[in-house]
Design goal:
Elements lengths: L15 H8 L3 H15 L4 E11 L28 H13 L4 E6 L6 H15 L4 E5 L5 H9 L4 E3 L18 H14 L2 E3 L2 E3 L5 H12 L7 E6 L16 H14 L4 E4 L8 H9 L4 E3 L3 E2 L2 E2 L3 H11 L2 E2 L5 H6 L6
Parallel strand pairs: 1-2, 1-9, 1-12, 2-3, 3-4, 4-5, 6-7, 7-8, 8-9
Antiparallel strand pairs: 10-11
Helix pairs in contact: 1-7, 2-8, 3-4, 5-6, 7-8, 8-9
């Protein structure tokens, strides 16, 4: 294998057998290839920090088998109202002070009503006024709703594919894989950056992981951010008790994601509280260059900021600041 054989620019025509061949590489060869790709597009020692806030918790009509917020699962989570604007601004200010450059807001909805969207648009404007990038995840969107969010200046919209189209029905039955693709199309058409990834440890096969990454990589424009989650098992959900994913298999998936989507930020998301420092270090070596930062991810635990800072210091990693944006574009991250 030579460096010349490595494609370091985005492709949208990945075949499944090519992706399976990457998964089958010896671990050292796979990480070398991923790290080579990463260095062609990013500063290898720079990590982008995002913070996620649940602005509306619980009572979701969907039946996602992993989710504590589904009204169909008895997880003990109480349904809450949409947070007031001042609470969101306060949380965003704290996130900015803690080093986050992007503030993500999540609401447990199947899809937002226009009235709810009005309130979210207020939040987007208030967070942007703090000098932070904005991201929301609100469920399915219509084309008109996506355009309204774009007009409000929203930077990113998160809508994960979760898993492969073939395995999807074993995890969610209240909306289809195609529904998710259509929302991503509305987001792209509106000119908003796509944030889309998946969850590992749902009981999926290796082929399912390859297919999920194939779907993401072969979108008309690859997602700007690709969150890779490790299932956080919540008692009361159908997937509680599922066999946990092998750490090396998780790192392999990070590496393949980096190779397939060379100019995307690959983000370590849910499940970091269950990852050792050594596992996270391997993920960074494999090409992860973004994390969710803070003590909570919607309703599940996340490593405390002090632990993250200590790990970054041990690894010699720097965190992205607002004035790093131009530097990142120079390494291949294009603007909207």
């Amino acid at each position: 294998m030579t460096a010349a054989a490595i494609c370091t620019k985005p492709r949208n025509d990945w075949a499944l057998d090519e992706i399976q061949a990457l998964f089958a590489l010896p671990f050292n060869d796979l990480l070398w290839r991923a790290q080579t790709t990463h260095r062609e597009n990013f500063d290898p020692n720079l990590v982008q920090i995002s913070t996620l806030l649940s602005i509306k918790t619980g009572g979701c009509a969907e039946d996602c088998a992993y989710c504590s917020q589904s009204a169909r699962h008895d997880t003990g989570l109480e349904r809450e109202r949409l947070l007031p604007l001042d609470s969101v601004v306060e949380a965003a200010q704290a996130a900015r002070a803690g080093g986050a450059t992007r503030f993500c807001m999540g609401a447990a909805w199947r899809n937002p009503t226009d009235k709810n969207l009005d309130r979210v648009i207020e939040m987007v404007g208030a967070v942007r006024a703090l000098g932070m990038e904005t991201c929301v995840t609100l469920g399915m969107l219509s084309g008109d709703q996506a355009r309204r969010l774009a007009d409000a200046g929203l930077d990113y919209y998160n809508h994960n594919l979760d898993t492969s189209p073939e395995f999807y029905g074993a995890v969610i039955t209240t909306r289809t894989f195609q529904d998710r693709l259509e929302t991503l199309q509305h987001v792209r058409d509106a000119g908003i950056h796509v944030c889309s990834g998946g969850i590992l440890g749902l009981g999926e096969s290796l082929v399912d992981r390859a297919r999920m990454l194939q779907e993401l990589a072969n979108l008309p424009r690859q997602p700007k951010s690709v969150p890779i989650n490790m299932l956080v098992q919540v008692e009361g959900t159908p997937l509680h008790g599922t066999a946990r994913i092998d750490p090396v298999a998780f790192v392999r998936t990070i590496a393949v994601a980096r190779i397939l989507m060379p100019q995307s930020h690959v983000r370590l998301s849910a499940g970091r509280d269950d990852m050792s420092d050594e596992m996270q270090a391997l993920c960074f070596l494999a090409g992860a260059n973004s994390v969710f930062y803070g003590e909570r991810l919607l309703t599940t635990d996340n490593p405390a900021a002090d632990r993250d800072r200590a790990l970054f210091q041990r690894l010699g990693l720097r965190t992205e600041q607002p004035d790093n944006a131009a530097d990142q574009k120079a390494h291949g991250a294009s603007g909207r």
